[in-house]
Write a structure and sequence with these properties.
- It is a single chain.
- The protein is built from twelve helices and no strands.
- With about 210 residues, it is mostly helical.
- The longest helix is centred in the first third of the chain and has 22 residues.
Length: about 210
């Protein structure tokens, strides 16, 4: 089942009409569709439940699907079989960091905080594990929903590395032994380009995910 292509067709059908298109709302829809498409792949592979894949509770997922994607069958996510899982310590710290910088009074920002914190625990670039098409989409998402946090990444550090640096700063210590980033022999692991193929494209091209 191709969730993203189904939702793209549904989104396009919504945009054909007299009402003006809210590009920011459409972008949020796109991001959610990408995340849920990744979640479906993991559900179908027996790797994760819907709540484990997204970091959202069953009630939150039900609301997201009903409100944002009425054309998609909810049963595909097997919500009746899932339970809500409490975040571990690392995920909880990432959540708290994102919650602290989320747009005030914006429930969608809080939900993205949960999704990002859960997907950040994976091994690929964060934009890939969110199912996005490139780093620019992730940067746009963070600038919209966590503007003060995103604005601090002036050196274009890899986003996951940046999150963990902020957590270290909040605790008053640093894991880095080098006196400055430029003098560190692991500079590229923090600041190198976040290039690669989207995971959707890898699946479409029949390539295995590492």
């Amino acid at each position: 089942m191709s969730f993203w292509s189904d939702e793209r067709r549904h989104s396009q059908s919504r945009s054909i009409g007299q009402r003006p298109i809210d590009l920011e709302t459409e972008f949020d829809q796109h991001v959610l569709a990408c995340v849920l498409s990744r979640a479906l792949k993991e559900i179908e592979a027996g790797e994760m439940t819907a709540t484990e894949a997204t970091g959202l509770s069953r009630a939150e997922l039900q609301d997201v699907l009903t409100r944002n994607f009425p054309a998609i069958p909810v049963k595909a996510f097997a919500l009746e079989k899932v339970t809500d899982r409490e975040p571990g310590m690392e995920e909880g710290l990432l959540r708290d960091l994102l919650f602290a910088h989320a747009r005030p009074g914006a429930p969608v920002s809080a939900r993205f905080a949960k999704i990002i914190a859960r997907r950040a625990l994976r091994n690929n670039h964060l934009w890939q594990d969110l199912g996005l098409f490139n780093r620019a989409e992730l940067s746009r998402l963070l600038a919209k929903h966590f503007p003060m946090l995103a604005a601090g990444n002036t050196k274009h550090m890899k986003w996951k590395k940046y999150f963990y640096r902020k957590l270290c700063e909040a605790e008053g210590f640093s894991l880095c032994a080098a006196p400055s980033c430029r003098e560190c022999n692991e500079f590229d692991s923090c600041f190198g380009p976040e290039e690669g193929e989207s995971l959707h494209a890898r699946i479409k091209n029949g390539l295995a995910l590492d």
